[in-house]
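Quick check before the chapter quiz. The format below is the same one you will see on the exam, so make sure you can read both the input and the output lines.
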Amino acid sequence: MRHIAMVRPRLPPALGRVADYLLRHPLKAATLTIEELAAATQTSPAAVNRLARSLELGGYSGLKAALVGTLHEVVSPVDKLRAELAQRPSGVFGLQEQLRTTQANLVAVENPNREQVFESIVATLVEARRIYVLGFGNSAYLAGMAAANLVPFCADAIAICMEGGNEHAAYRLAMIGASDVLLAISLPRYSLDTARLARFARDRGAKVVAITDSPASPLAQIADDVLYAPVEHPVLTSSNVAALTIIEGLVAAVIARNKEAVGLAAELTESVLSYLHVSTADGGRKRK
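Here is the expected output.
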């Protein structure tokens, strides 16, 4: 869909009408024959095929396969939720089930991840001039937590995905260079912009490290080093527990390697002390 939207301004009128229909009615378009799509857009089968070729999809069969594939990625979590809830007529999901799911994901972290890769990423973070942390959707909160906890134990760390959305994230990443590192986080459903900005950072000479769920993730093909976080959950689209555990491990390793960590922690504590609740010997009662 994003590719169609990008080429739409350059299309001739007939192909533009087909593209507009695909963008407005992607689910319905995936169910139509080439003749039905041509009729719905008041064009011709030839125009539909020309659009498919302009998108480098070969022809209508390639276009339809791409539509079905895109919709499957978007709709499959909905199908998963529908099927799961159908097996829970009482609507019960308990704490013990959540704990079992969490435990299974944490155990599964060990299998795909090698200690050498973890150590390589830690060294990259420690040596970086600046660490940019990127994630969209739920991954934005994980990215924000990673950046917040890396400060002040590394030279500089910034989450580039908070205020202002994707466009401002690209602005913040514009100055990334060979002495910097991008820590990119992407869990299903994957963000196209995370992969695009990761490629941009790599093309600028920066080191790219990633936290994602599978070698099939777009980030796995872009990053120099990858740590994998299982995301299985019976109800949610994906679980964040394993990713959070990996983030905590990376932050702890960075702190452990910083010889000034104790002093930096003391300075940080002093700077926020006035905002913290501190218990007193008399139970917090004010003295007259």
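If your answer matched, good. The chain has two domains: 2-85, 100-273.
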